[in-house]
């Protein structure tokens, strides 16, 4: 079983919102929502995150930029936005998604997710990381 298969299996069977696997070891898992689990994984794992496989509940443009910034090698998600797909495929990350959507919606489903809007025109991972972390610090949430 590949790291990505193990990440997806743990993600589904344990009800995680995020699972990170490297060398057949579950390095990090969370049930929190938004981008916070990915940022927490990066803070906790540091360089160990590089080259890992990740299963995440939703991958929009913001999450895709973070995955590129942290050098994730493979991703599984039940829901992927088209801008995220374009960016990730261009970068050569192995990607499996169950469903594709034009954009990620905010909770309630009536408007675009604020983080998706924030990063809509950004293609540089470092710039995306800076914008995302600045917004989170300013708002105190994802």
Task: Please tell me about this protein's structure.
The protein is an alpha/beta fold and 142 residues long. It has a single domain, classed as Hypothetical protein TM1506 (Cytidine Deaminase, domain 2, 3-Layer(aba) Sandwich). The protein contains 6 helices and 6 strands. Strands 1, 2, 3, 4, 5 and 6 form a 6-stranded mixed sheet that branches. Helix 3 packs parallel to helix 4 (82-91) and helix 3 packs across helix 6 (125-139). The longest helix is centred in the last third of the chain and has 15 residues, at 125-139. The radius of gyration is 14 Å and the shape is globular. The mean pLDDT is 95.
Features:
142 residues; single chain; Cytidine Deaminase, domain 2; 6 helices; 43% helix; globular; 6 strands; alpha/beta
Give the overall average pLDDT: 95
Instruction: Examine the secondary-structure arrangement and name the CATH architecture.
Output: 3-Layer(aba) Sandwich
Number of strands: 6
CATH superfamily: Hypothetical protein TM1506
Relative helix content: 40-55%
The main sheet comes to: 6 strands, mixed
CATH fold naming: Cytidine Deaminase, domain 2
Write the topology of this structure:
Elements: H1 3-14, E1 18-22, E2 25-30, H2 36-45, E3 53-56, E4 58-59, H3 61-69, E5 74-81, H4 82-91, E6 94-101, H5 114-118, H6 125-139
Please give a quick description of this structure:
This protein has helices at residues 3-14, 36-45, 61-69, 82-91, 114-118, 125-139; strands at residues 18-22, 25-30, 53-56, 58-59, 74-81, 94-101. The protein is an alpha/beta fold and 142 residues long. It has a single domain (3-139), classed as Hypothetical protein TM1506 (Cytidine Deaminase, domain 2), CATH 3.40.140.30.
